Amino acid sequence: MNRISITSFIAAAGLWGWGAAQAQSVTLYGILDTGVEYINHASANGSSVVRMPGNTGELPSRWGLRGVEDLGGGYKAVFTLESGITVGTGGLGQGGRLFGRQAFVGIDGPLGLLTFGRQYSMLYRAIFDADFIGPDIYGIASLDAWIASARSDNTVAYQRHFGPVTVGATYSFGRDASPTGGTNTPGSGTCAGNLAGNSEACREWSAMLKYDVTAGGVAVGYDRQDGGPGATANLFNGIAPVALAGSGNRDSRFLLDGYFKLGNFQLGAIWLNRQVEFNGPGAKNITSNQYTIEAGYQVTPSFLIDGLVQKIIDRQQDTRASMEVLRATYFLSARTAVYAQAALLQNSTYAAYSVSGGGSSTPGKGMNQFGMMCGVRHSF
């Protein structure tokens, strides 16, 4: 990352009560990651596709600004503005938002970090260390696309560390203010909230508890989205999303994970339980369970091999899928890497999960998929 230091001098001793020079540090950072992908059975008629994916490679492309100002007494002001980039076209991600990935401001200090704005769910932060494959084009988000985009608008967030223990929580007053038909939060529709007389509509809250030491750690996380006008729940299994228009409806995820490191080897295990609940007579709720094992080995300082195996089960909609991923990354420098990866997904008879998180590539029901991608990424 490149750092730009900006120092402001206030000459008048009485200006807003300040009598000394104040300094602010601003960091410009980013990642550019893209390549070429092949997927077979990329449509209902079984056609294949070769493309430059729009969403991600090993990591989603982005640029951002992160700032810190020392306020004294152990406190500091912080902010982050982060924009998603579609490298192949130069477009903006997150439905065309300028700062669609993150946009928040807050205060950090001895009592913890309190921030306000567009921010990640604590479930995303709880999964971060165990899911070292991360928001890869072939990863956990292939079976639940929301995981890689677990963020909300109009959010208050709090985090605090107690030695190896980290606690955190968020609360959103209106989780998705995208224009109608926007693509900000995959599978969740639009749900702006802030409705007079309906304090539950489009709310979202999350919580996290983590324990981390040098050798590994464990975490639990929870996220709940309340229904409201425009809200939907997509199970990403080829079945049409279900409406969550009533504020009494819920879409919640519970996470339990753990990881450990031994020399150059690391292992992660993740269980994600999802509950879509409907408030009404005769309503049938939907439950899915996703199980993931990830492993990685640093063969040399410049060469990393990692991968995962995972399975998802949705009994109510009678859809299941299994998926295997193998990835190799070669680091040309501290900032630049090239990679090759391949994934195989097996759908059950009525399922149409997609192996790729790189954009529209949904197979026909019961079709298996193979995907592979070679790419390059650079960080700054």
From TrEMBL:
Residues 19-348 form the Porin domain. It comes from the Bacteria. Its main location: membrane. Keywords: Cell outer membrane, Ion transport, Membrane, Porin, Signal, Transmembrane, Transmembrane beta strand, Transport. The keyword DNA-binding does not apply. SUPFAM superfamilies: Porins (SSF56935). It is found in: Cell outer membrane. Gene3D superfamilies: Porin. Residues 1-23 form the signal peptide. It is a multi-pass membrane protein. It holds the Pfam family Porin_4. Homotrimer. This is Porin. It comes from Caballeronia udeis.
